[in-house]
Design goal:
With 212 residues, the chain is of the alpha/beta class. Helix content is 33%, strand content 24%. Belongs to the methyltransferase superfamily.
Length: 212
C-alpha cells in the first residue's frame, strides 16, 4: 500500500483509469453528518478530491461553494474540464495538502475522504500527516470543522488529531461500509476493524475531548 503515499502513483493511476471512483463512501452514506456540520452557504474545501463524485453530489444537494484540491495534475485538469459549467465557486486546483496556497481562515469546513489514510501509507507518513492536519487547521476559520472519513480505528487515528498544538474538539462517529467499498488498510489492526468507517469530526476552537 506504500504507493498510495506517492504523487507519481496517482498521476499514473488517473492517466490509466479516468473513470469516477469513490473511496469508502458515496455522499449518501455521510449525508446526515455533512448536513449536521455544514450548511449550503458554507465555504468548503475537499482535500484529495481525485475523481470522486462526492463534490458533484454535494453540489446537487445545494453545497455549491466547494474548492477541490488534489496533488495529481492529470485528475485536476480532467475535473476542471468536466465541471467547467458548475460556476465560479466550484473549482478544482492542483495543490499539495501539506502546503496549501490559501490564506489563513479561508474556509468554513474541510472534507477528507481517505486522503489522510493514503498519506499514512507513504514515506515520512507521520510527519506528512501532521503537515496536512496543521494546514487544515490553518485554513479553517473560527469554529471551522474538519470532517475526516477514515478506515483507521480511533486508537490509531486520534493521536494525529489530539496534539497539544491543536484546539480541536474531536467527536468520532461510525457509518456502515457500503456493500461495495474500497478501503486503504494501513496496519494489521486496522484490517481487523468492524464493518464500519470512522468519521472524525474535528471542530476548531472548541473544548477538547473525544467522544464516540
Amino acid at each position: 500500500m506504500s504507493q498510495y503515499g506517492k504523487a507519481e502513483y496517482w498521476e499514473e493511476r488517473y492517466t490509466r483509469d479516468p473513470e469516477p471512483f469513490d473511496w469508502y463512501q458515496r455522499f449518501a452514506g455521510i449525508k446526515d453528518l455533512v448536513s449536521a456540520c455544514f450548511t449550503p452557504e458554507s465555504k468548503l474545501l475537499n482535500i484529495g478530491a481525485g475523481n470522486s463524485r462526492l463534490s458533484e453530489e454535494m453540489f446537487d444537494e445545494g453545497y455549491q461553494n466547494i474548492t477541490n484540491i488534489d496533488i495529481s495534475h492529470v485528475v485536476t485538469k480532467a475535473m476542471q474540464e468536466k465541471y467547467k459549467d458548475k460556476g465560479p465557486n466550484f473549482k478544482y486546483l492542483h495543490m499539495d495538502a501539506r502546503a496549501m496556497e490559501f490564506e489563513d481562515g479561508s474556509f468554513d469546513g474541510a472534507i477528507d475522504k481517505g486522503t489522510l489514510d493514503a498519506i499514512l501509507c507513504g514515506e515520512s507518513s507521520s510527519s506528512n500527516a501532521q503537515k496536512v492536519i496543521q494546514e487544515v487547521h490553518r485554513v479553517l476559520g473560527p469554529k471551522g470543522v474538519y470532517l475526516a472519513i477514515s478506515y483507521g480505528l480511533p486508537e490509531h487515528r486520534l493521536q494525529y488529531f489530539e496534539k497539544p498544538e491543536y484546539d480541536w474538539n474531536v467527536i468520532v462517529k461510525q457509518v456502515h461500509k457500503p456493500t461495495i467499498s474500497t478501503s486503504i488498510a494501513i496496519t494489521n489492526e486496522d484490517k481487523d476493524a468492524p464493518n464500519a468507517h470512522y468519521i472524525y469530526i474535528c471542530t476548531k476552537g472548541q473544548q477538547k475531548g473525544a467522544k464516540q
